Amino acid sequence: MNPRVKNNPILTFLYLGIPDDASFIERQKGYMFNLFILIGAPFAVLSLIVNLSEQAYFPAFINIIQISCFSLALWITISGKWKQYRVIILIILSIVAMIAAYSYQNSGEYRLLIMIVAAVVLFDRSWQYIIYAAIACAAFVYIRMYQIPDIAELAMEDLIFTGLKIFLPILLYVLSLLYFKIIYFRNLQQLEDTNRALAITTRQKDQILGTVAHDLRSPISNIANITELIQSDNLSQAEKTNFLRLIDQSSRSALNLINDLLQNSDIQVRQSLFKIVELNQLLNSWIPSLQLRANEKNIQILTHFFSSPIDISMDVDRIERVITNLVNNAVKFSSEGSKIFIQITADDKYARITVTDQGIGIPQEKQEHIFDMFSNAQRVGTLGEKSFGMGLSICKQIVEQHHGHIFVQSEEYKGSSFIVELPLQ
């Protein structure tokens, strides 16, 4: 809590029961409800003392009802429970205030104006507030006119004029509050959305920095240590060759992480880069470069194209990134000498690219998280290759920006199939 709030007993009470992580709108509701208690409860207690001293027992009974309502309201504030009943307490207190003002002509109707201020925040829907305010205003006008001496002797024109003099300022008051709520809450919602987006961005930045600090430091440190060992004259040629292989492995690990980070910072699909291509021919042109990556594990890529041409509009570079990531993943999690199958199918709405491997598969409990960035679903490749948890997230974002879908079918130790659906032109 803000130190300024802690040192001020009134502010401390106004923020009572409001969690630090509460939304802006919920925070304002709690603040206004506490303000309503702070203003109304002391008057009810003071009135009870006065009425008891004057032996006015029925007004004292009304004060007891008011104090009971305020006590329940205070319990709701402190406990954080039954918040949905705050408006019911407000309505009960409004009815009690109307009865007291009508019965005793003690100017208690002016409490309705305070309750209208509280109601504009506590009611979630504008129409709910309008109904409440209309009833409260009608009661206020009736009570004020009832207190006018010789009201029955006034002409109809004077009655209407007198009623309008009382009603129109209150109507302006009610509408001004409603307008203020709409504008204020709209700005609060925009601020909350912006704050939420900023929190997500900050969290992603922290995750990226953490990944870089942890995962990039390790391979670079390995390269530095191994390089120092190679400079020793006591190593055989075979040992040096083995160390060079380790340097190559560490540098590739660092390069893969950097590539993933760079891809994550540039995944926006621009409509101006979309062009109509024939999917079978396009994928066939990517196979040689994909096979080069698979050759590192002596893995063969087999393809099955659709029987008819498939013309589709896409950002070619981004979709190539998707397929490359999927094939690289398939290679990473497949054993040496296995096969990867790439198949193209289509129906009336979508073209489908399916990448299937014979690898280690994905446990069922991890499948729903593998498209989340930096999720805990990362796996280790069959040769110890590191997974940084960003590739599939990037694929998902790119495919969805094409108004398509990506999903997985997998069984642990029996391989995985990733299906990319892209809408036809």
What would the keywords be for this entry?
single chain, 425 residues, alpha+beta, Heat Shock Protein 90, five-stranded mixed sheet, two-stranded antiparallel ribbon, 7 strands, 63% helix
Question: How would you sum up this structure, described in words?
Answer:
The protein is of the alpha+beta class. Among the domains are: 3-147, no CATH class; 273-423, Histidine kinase-like ATPase, C-terminal domain (Heat Shock Protein 90, 2-Layer Sandwich), CATH 3.30.565. The chain has helices spanning 3-6, 9-14, 24-53, 57-79, 86-104, 111-122, 126-146, 156-230, 237-265, 279-295, 316-332, 364-367, 391-401, and strands at 275-278, 300-304, 311-314, 339-346, 350-357, 405-410, 416-423. Strand 4 and strand 5 form a beta hairpin. Helix 3 packs antiparallel against helix 6. The longest helix is centred in the middle third of the chain and has 75 residues, at 156-230. The mean pLDDT is 80. Keywords: Kinase, Membrane, Phosphoprotein, Transferase, Transmembrane, Transmembrane helix. This is histidine kinase. Pfam families: HATPase_c, HisKA. InterPro entries: HATPase_C_sf (IPR036890), HATPase_dom (IPR003594), His_kinase_dom (IPR005467), HisK_dim/P_dom (IPR003661), HisK_dim/P_sf (IPR036097), Sig_transdc_His_kin-like_C (IPR004358).
Write the layout of secondary structure elements.
Blueprint: H1 3-6, H2 9-14, H3 24-53, H4 57-79, H5 86-104, H6 111-122, H7 126-146, H8 156-230, H9 237-265, E1 275-278, H10 279-295, E2 300-304, E3 311-314, H11 316-332, E4 339-346, E5 350-357, H12 364-367, H13 391-401, E6 405-410, E7 416-423
Parallel strand pairs: 2-4
Antiparallel strand pairs: 1-3, 4-5, 5-7, 6-7
Helix pairs in contact: 3-4, 3-6, 4-5, 5-6, 5-7, 6-7, 6-8, 7-8, 8-9, 10-11, 11-13
